[in-house]
Amino acid sequence: MSNLASSTPSHWRTTIRAVLKTAGVCAAIGIGLVMTLDFAGTDYAFLAAYTILQYVALATAWNILGGYAGYVNFGVAAFYAVGVYTSVVIYKTLQWPLLFTIPLAALVAGLLGLGMGYLTLRLRGVFFSIATLALSVVLNTLIVNWSFVGGSRGVYIIHPATMPYFGSYARYLLIVMLLIAIGSVLVARYIEHSWIGNGLAALKDDELAAECAGVPSMKMKLIATTVSGALLGIVGAPFPYFVTYIDPASAFSLSVAVNAIAMPLIGGTATWIGPVIGALLLGTLQQVATVTISSALNLLLVGVLLVLFVSVAPNGIVGFVKNIWERKRK
To answer: How far is residue 36 from each of residues 45, 116, 167, measured CA to CA in Å?
Structure first.
């Protein structure tokens, strides 16, 4: 809790420099990824990479509330679907390009996060988790009965085959998701090392003690739910253009909800790099399983790995490696 006092100008400059370094590394990796996929020359390679990057962004966004603050959000699919259906509404009304739709999806999902946080953050533990799950069920019911966005029958989204300056539309979507994933990681990196991250860590350790020490708990948690919700909505916005047909079953997918929670737990929830490692590992394994065996094995794979890591390495891959490193130094 004493770290809250570290939000001095020098600490702020150090944090910004660290975020900029991370941005440089991410940009270099992203350029290398696109060049490699260009060399492969198939749209499937772009779409597979899009799916993995989507999980990186989802896991990172979930971890801001679930990992840093310790509030487990089972309503990931609700925020993701808000982003999805914001795109659908814009497509059927204003016909804006995807890049103009994404900020609107962030605004709507962020406001939903703020409202949900205001109503539910006084609950703790399993009661908060159940409330977020109920939000997902309520929104799913509303969408199923909203005929304008296709209701239970779904709706088709038509996109052009190519995009100027980007080549194929699959390549364009990959670059959009790459930027979203990098942006999510940078936001999480900044929050983790800022006064917000220090406050959330104090709340996670002992919320009552943190409040007694002067940490504005409700303000911290509302910031986390709003930012996490906005990022989850951003991730959902390009999805209708990715699949070209959207219905409630795909927007409120169990796969999205499970992976967004399992990947940070497997990678490690204490740092921003944990969800990235978990998403890259699980996302790649799922793509390999989809190509070589069947996509039906994806959730089974996640479940087996989650049970394994919870039993053997409850702090995730990052915590496991850190423990081994500290033992060797002694």
So the answer is: 10, 41, 15
